[in-house]
Fold this protein.
Amino acid sequence: MQAPAHPYLKRVWEGVINRNPGQNLFLQAVHEVLESLQPVLDEYPEVERLGILERMCEPERQIMFRVAWFDDEGKVRVNRGYRVGFSSVLGPYKGGLRFHPSVDLDTIKFLGFEQVLKNSLTGLPIGGGKGGADFNPKGKSDAEIMRFCQAFMGELFRYVGALTDVPAGDIGVGAREIGYLFGQYKKLTQRHELGVLTGKSATLGGSLARTEATGFGAVYFAREMLAVQEKTFEGGTAVVSGSGNVALYCIKKLQELGVSVVACSDSEGSLHDAAGLDFDYLRMLKETERKRLREYAFFRPRAGFHEGKKPWNVPCDFAFPCATQNELDEDDACALVKNGCRLVVEGANMPCTPEAVGVFRKAGTLFAPAKAANAGGVAVSALEMRQNASLESWSFKRVDEELQNIMTTIHASCRHFSEKYKRPGDYAFGANVAGFLRAAEAVRAYGVT
């Protein structure tokens, strides 16, 4: 990654590299933002004088802890847990917990840094943080997952609270895991503090539409992008990577808007159904039976499961990478462009490599960055916090309407700054600048803290 040309940005970048050696995901996320900020610095010289970028690139706190738990055979297992509070300038730390064997400090810092700007874009009073553990829930019994969650919260409870740090779910952490975490927090603190976790089931004070929010939000953002060009989704085809909550509800909303979604994927390969994916069957397979996608092809012979393959070679009008970071590389981007894809929307966190984004820019393919397009999940989490604070429960329709308004506002903000700085249509640039400026103003207002 080449250092930015601007002397201040170059100095900040070199400092970040020196303090975070080998943390390539975090460095990638920071570099992508710094590259966007030169015109901002020309207009706001106080950013350099007050060291705002140095402060925003350094987490406020980094917590790492051991998690020891019993498996079903009575053997003690040991994992490592993390919680990084990146910035609280706009509100309590807010961001999910990820349980996956790939989780390390680099992963959590990259996610936390992205979360600061994403949360800033929502306009809501929430800071940025992230956490998780290198625990793999796949193949674990329900009892093992419960014991792990209880052990994890046995360490984490010291650092979280409705006005301090509010975790939610992410990869490997859904309503079941949040319920176990919340139950242990309640037991340890003797407080029924509803707002300490979001993504709870409705029974425990969770918000309706939270499960759907990230996937729905990505589609709402994309709809705004198309509307600028006086186009719609109607009659188009789409491919979606992943098959978790984000992917599933992205598929559902696309289908409701008249799109034929013909492919999705999991860690074992990709599923292609030229007649259109059967959402209800897919949801039952993944959410209820917790099975792999290859099972879909077994019961739906019209579909094909392709071992070890990504879905990006399937011709489409719209692509929604909704699985994990850096899953869509330069070759994948070239395949999408060659096959006529005209819109790529990041549903996961930073799923496109910098080289892939470069391909889309060169080809003129519309591109929606994750920090804008997948902000729907954290936006509804913040709405859950609001409901918890007022002891209210909103209808699905009300939450969905609020979500649509928030995604429309994020889109307008990204578009405004891209046009202001003579980068029309560059939503990644617009998102970086819009998210940075709101957070930077808060940093300035606090003084040196």
The radius of gyration is 21 Å. The first helix runs from residue 7 to 19.
